[in-house]
UniProtKB/TrEMBL annotation:
Family: Belongs to the NAD(P)-dependent epimerase/dehydratase family.
InterPro entries hit by this protein: NAD(P)-bd_dom_sf
Keywords: Isomerase, NAD
SUPFAM superfamilies for the chain: NAD(P)-binding Rossmann-fold domains
GO molecular function: isomerase activity
Record protein name field: NAD(P)-binding Rossmann-fold superfamily protein
TM annotation in the entry: none
Keyword field contains Chaperone: no
Length: 349
């Protein structure tokens, strides 16, 4: 296999990773380029190299074999990493919003997204996020790492989190986005950052989260326990859209829910990252808890959805909790863009 070292502006990388000829056509831009790419393919029959500048080096090894889907790319980071560079483990809805907001505050930084598969790598590249696949060797560590991947796609969530902490260089911040589920309250009572958590052994779901949190805290990272996430009407993200689709739901109408918009979860995450704190747990919510019934009444009143909700018919499932994150807000100086679900919908309270 021959190797060719190419230096081209990062702005010209997008859309070229699947086309070596387009990459080669960019050689003329190498003299003062801000990013370097090392690209290896079996069908290259020549080798060349250029001097290194003080920018991160993105090393991409791409093997091309007959029948290989899309010439599978494996990326690893080599060379210098910038002081504000960010690794997002699990760049889904939340991770992508974090990337957008982080870049606004840190122009010129490099943002990398680690995924389980390469299915959405093209989307990430278009957003300016350099994709890598879990398990790809990374020779340099990052000053900022945020773990946004859910536990549903892995048999060893704490192990995956531990692996992610190894990509952190101990500077900046490591942040794990957890859930408010571990708070031990199921009677619609009040709950804040100091509320005790569910004991290990009572619930598999909370066991997984608490064990992952423990890994992060022991590594010096921070945790945000997020309430229920929702986003715009078009993207249909949130419990309310699920219930709207079902129409009749066999759960209690008086169960208290806690919400936070994806944009606010992202801005809160960035607020924690920027503080460079160690071993802390924060809570993300809008401080306006609502019952399931109240949520769906607001949805109906808004007139922004094309159908009406049916009913909640359950009577025996557990109740919820009323979250307040006043301590988090005071310490971080953070306030949400959407102070309540009603505000998001444009419905007077």
């Amino acid at each position: 296999m021959s190797t060719i070292a190419v230096c081209i502006p990062s702005s010209r990388i997008r859309g070229r990773l699947d086309s070596p000829k387009k990459l080669i056509s960019d050689f003329s831009f190498c003299s003062n380029s801000p990013a370097f790419i090392s690209f290896s393919r079996r069908f290259f029959s020549f080798s060349t190299s250029f001097s290194v500048v003080n920018r991160p080096l993105l090393k991409i090894n791409a093997s091309s074999t007959v029948g290989a889907p899309n010439g599978e790319l494996e990326a690893s980071i080599a060379g210098m990493v910038g002081a504000n560079d960010l690794l997002i483990v699990g760049p889904g809805v939340l991770g992508r919003i974090v990337a957008e907001k982080w870049r606004e505050e840190h122009p010129g930084c490099q943002i990398y997204g680690q995924t389980m598969t390469s299915d959405h790598h093209d989307e990430l590249i278009k957003m300016g996020i350099t994709p890598t696949t879990k398990g790809t060797p990374v020779s340099n560590k990052f000053p900022y790492v945020i773990f946004c991947a859910p536990p549903s796609r892995t048999p060893d969530y704490p192990g995956d989190v531990r692996e992610a902490t190894l990509n952190w260089n101990g500077e900046g911040s490591f942040l794990f986005t957890s859930s408010s589920a571990p708070y031990d309250c199921s009677d619609n009572g009040s709950c804040d950052e100091e509320t005790p958590v569910v004991p290990i052994g009572r619930s598999h779901r909370t066991d997984v989260l608490l064990k992952a949190e423990k890994v992060v805290l022991e590594a010096g990272g921070c945790v945000i326990r997020l309430a229920g996430l929702y986003i715009s009407f078009i993207d249909l993200e949130g419990a309310h859209t699920y219930w709207l689709e079902k129409g009749i739901c066999d759960v209690r109408p008086d169960h208290i829910l806690n919400l936070i918009h994806y944009e606010d979860a992202a801005s809160l995450s960035i607020a924690v990252l920027k503080k460079k704190l160690r071993g802390r747990i924060f809570l993300g919510c809008d401080n306006h808890p609502l019952s399931r019934q109240e949520v769906m009444e607001l949805v109906d009143k808004s007139g922004k959805y094309g159908k009406k909700f049916g009913a909640f018919t359950g009577t025996k499932d557990p109740l919820g909790k009323k979250l307040s994150n006043s301590k988090t807000r005071a310490e971080l100086g953070w306030e949400p863009k959407y102070p309540s679900f009603a505000h998001f919908l444009g419905v007077p309270q």
